[in-house]
Specification:
Layout: H1 9-45, H2 48-79, H3 82-109, H4 117-137, H5 139-174
């Protein structure tokens, strides 16, 4: 009877961080895009302190949302066998994140697609299955996803610094 090797968090930590980087970059870019979209109306009706508070709350929520988006992928990675996790988890997670983001973007900014949720869900599923198969099959796709995650890490550090600043603004406003 074969015994399974216990999960060593030290071996999984770099991949879990890359999963968080991918999810945080998508969530923060979406948040900052929407924040700058609403910024002109905020500037016209808010004072500076209220504006900083709104930005602080937006960034703090983006940090929480990033953790919530990354958590299922990290949890699934803990349940998978270490050999499969090391080879495929990051690329498949990136595909699911990207296709989900594109679907959310299409639904958020196009009113004409509101009646086609089932069709869009099927397209999303087909895209995930097709791209997931490609990610498992082709090593080049895996290396591209890892390189993107490595390069996004610096941007995510900047986002996290802005999130901490937003939390500090919230604390100062509410104390």
């Amino acid at each position: 009877m074969a015994t399974s090797k216990p999960i060593a968090w030290s071996e999984y930590r770099p991949q879990a961080f890359k999963l968080f980087v991918l999810s945080a970059s998508i969530v923060h870019l979406w948040t900052i895009f929407n924040m700058f979209y609403d910024m002109p109306s905020w500037v016209l009706r808010m004072e500076l302190w209220e504006l900083l508070g709104s930005i602080g709350y937006t960034l703090a929520f983006a940090l929480i949302e990033s953790a919530l988006v990354a958590t299922p992928f990290i949890a699934i990675g803990l349940l998978l066998p270490s050999t499969w996790r090391a080879r495929n988890l990051l690329s498949i997670s990136a595909i699911v994140l990207l296709t989900s983001t594109l679907l959310a973007f299409a639904l958020h900014y196009t009113d004409r697609l509101q009646n086609y949720e089932k069709l869009l869900a099927l397209i999303w599923l087909a895209a995930n299955l097709g791209l997931g198969f490609m990610a498992i099959r082709f090593q080049r796709m895996k290396s591209v996803v890892e390189q993107i995650a490595d390069r996004l890490a610096l941007l995510v550090y900047t986002f996290l610094a802005a999130d901490v600043l937003g939390i500090l603004i919230i604390l100062v406003r509410n104390l």
